[in-house]
Amino acid sequence: MTTNRTFTMIKPDAVANGHIGAILDQISKAGFKFVAFKYTALTPEKAGEFYAVHSERPFYKDLVSFMSSGPIVAAILEKDNAIEDFRKLIGATDPAKADAGTIRNLFAKSIDANAVHGSDSDENAQIEGNFFFSAFERF
Ligand code: IDP
After folding, report:
1. Average pLDDT over residues 66-77
2. Under CATH, to which class is 5-137 assigned?
3. What is the number of helices (H) and of strands (E) in the chain?
4. What one-character DSSP code corresponds to residue 10?
5. Cα–Cα nearest to 89, from 110, 63, 107, 71
6. Rounded Cα distance, 56 and 34, in Å
7. Could you tell me if residue 54 is left (phi over 0), alpha (psi between -120 and 50 degrees) or otherwise beta?
8. Which residues line ligand 1 (CB under 6 A)?
């Protein structure tokens, strides 16, 4: 399944630090189109559900607490080769290892507060987009 879509969140650290505009600008300049967009917040329950795949990992509790600590931006993006190109644009999970100029290199401070999320597969992009947006909110 190839959808040419990915799902992203601007995480609470990047929102709190005033980076929404700069991050959206980088995403647009990289050629991604916004097909769904919202400013929202996750409850601990919703954050736990979103990251359920990591529930056995040692960082899960902290991740859930961080992701429900403040507002986020959620968006579905469209572009050829969206998953791979967006993962390149955001850089490695650990900002210390992210290439220069990537969003995490520029805007993230640590591996847990790492500024942005990007789906890792077409299947997950669809699941994650559906988690945040109902059918009439997706274009
Ligand atoms: P990804 O967001 O780059 O796809 P994943 O391995 O799917 O990375 O992990 C999901 C999120 O969990 C990461 O973005 C990060 O916020 C957090 N995380 C991952 N590994 C660690 C860790 O070793 N310590 C703390 N938080 C982590």
Report:
1. 98
2. alpha beta
3. 7, 4
4. E
5. 107
6. 33
7. alpha
8. 59, 63, 93, 111-112, 114, 117, 120
Could you tell me the distance, in angstroms and rounded to a whole number, from the CA of residue 112 to the centre of ligand 1?
A: 6
pLDDT computed for residue 1 by the predictor = 54
Q: How many CA atoms lie within 13 A of 130 on its CB side?
A: 6
- Domain ranges (residues) in the chain: 5-137
Q: How many CB atoms neighbour CB 43 within 10 A?
A: 11
Q: Is 6 annotated as a binding-site member?
A: no
* Ligand 1 centroid from CA 120, angstroms: 12
Alpha-carbon torsion, ordered 4, 132, 109, 57, to 10 deg: -100
Output DSSP code: residue 11: -
- pLDDT at 93 exceeding the cut of 90: yes
Band the pLDDT of 3: cuts 50, 70, 90. Answer: confident
Per-residue pLDDT tens digits for 107-130: 999 999 999 999 999 999 999 999
pLDDT of residue 139: 85
State the pTM of this model.
0.97
